[in-house]
Automatic annotation (TrEMBL):
Protein name per the record: Superoxide dismutase
Cofactor(s) recorded in Swiss-Prot or TrEMBL: Fe cation
Source lineage: Eukaryota, Viridiplantae, Streptophyta, Embryophyta, Tracheophyta
Domain Manganese/iron superoxide dismutase N-terminal: 44-128
EC number: 1.15.1.1
Binding-site positions, Mn(2+): 68, 121, 205, 209
InterPro entries xref list: Mn/Fe_SOD (IPR001189), Mn/Fe_SOD_BS (IPR019833), Mn/Fe_SOD_C (IPR019832), Mn/Fe_SOD_N (IPR019831), Mn/Fe_SOD_N_sf (IPR036324), SOD_C_sf (IPR036314)
Localization per record: Plastid, Chloroplast
Gene3D superfamilies: Fe,Mn superoxide dismutase (SOD) domain, Iron/manganese superoxide dismutase, C-terminal domain
UniProt function note: Destroys radicals which are normally produced within the cells and which are toxic to biological systems.
Pfam families, per database record: Sod_Fe_C (PF02777), Sod_Fe_N (PF00081)
Length: 257
């Protein structure tokens, strides 16, 4: 992955089911030990998309992936790791914990933008697949029909949110815990629905570097290409299955298989 990863000690993240933080004393002890054994400490690695960089062509080019994942996403990871070298308190958090903690109830800490963008991009790459598109199936489609009236209504609302987003940001399909329903939300810059306690199901990156090389300023063509040819509904269904462990939706139940 480049020179950053030379002489690196990788510290495995705790499972996402853990919600408590490592004590500051233990964090500092681990950090001092790591600094004594390595020149660089890597808290988080750059995850590779679950397909080759040219696998989404012609709808998302290899060149876009090289710039978007290889430069922008990498820069967020590297920037975050540099910040964490100076902040012992955040050492050992899972990425979910890090995003929520650094959001600081709407008064973001310096680490938030990089942490949230790392999380957002990992989620985005895993929201697409080669030969994607079409429609969700089974329980997820039923839930969309229940909460939006129809899949067509959902798609129109998702597209409208993407095209009306001012500046840079993201569009999401989320499950709202309190309301117990699916909703389309949009966020600015690095903000992720995690900070509002929503459960993300699907995302679309609407930063300019996500589409400009392939679509110039034609955002509508980019959004339609995502919906018609890239979106990975199986991944969204799996996320809904997990979400139902936390939110009782009643009928319809999302089938595991």
């Amino acid at each position: 992955m480049g020179s950053l990863w030379n002489n690196v000690v990788l510290h495995p993240l705790r499972p996402h089911s853990h919600t408590s933080f490592t004590s500051p004393m233990k964090q500092q002890k681990l950090l001092r030990s790591s600094r004594n054994s390595s020149k660089v400490i890597a808290y988080y690695g750059l995850k590779t998309p679950p397909y080759s960089l040219d696998a989404l062509e012609p709808f998302m080019s290899r060149r876009t992936l090289e710039v978007h994942w290889g430069r922008h996403h990498r820069a967020y990871v590297e920037g975050l790791n540099k910040q964490l070298e100076k902040n012992d308190i955040l050492y050992g958090c899972t990425m979910d914990e890090l995003v929520k903690f650094t959001y600081n109830n709407g008064n973001p800490l310096p680490e938030f933008n990089n942490a949230a963008q790392v999380w957002n991009h990992d989620f985005f790459w895993e929201s697409m697949q080669p030969g994607g598109g079409d429609m969700p199936k089974l329980g997820l489609l039923q839930q969309i029909d229940k909460d939006f009236g129809s899949f067509t209504n959902f798609r129109e609302k998702f597209t409208e949110a993407a095209l009306s987003l001012f500046g840079s940001g993201w569009v999401w399909l989320v499950l709202k815990r309190k309301e117990k329903c699916l909703a389309v939300v949009k966020t600015s810059n690095a903000v992720t629905p995690l900070v509002w306690d929503d459960i993300p199901i699907l995302s679309l990156d609407m930063w300019e570097h996500a589409y400009y090389l392939d679509y110039q300023n034609d955002k509508a063509k980019y959004v339609n290409a995502f919906m018609d040819n890239l979106v990975w509904w199986d991944a969204a269904t799996i996320r809904m299955v997990r979400a139902e462990a936390f939110v009782n939706l009643g009928e319809p139940n999302i089938p595991v298989a």
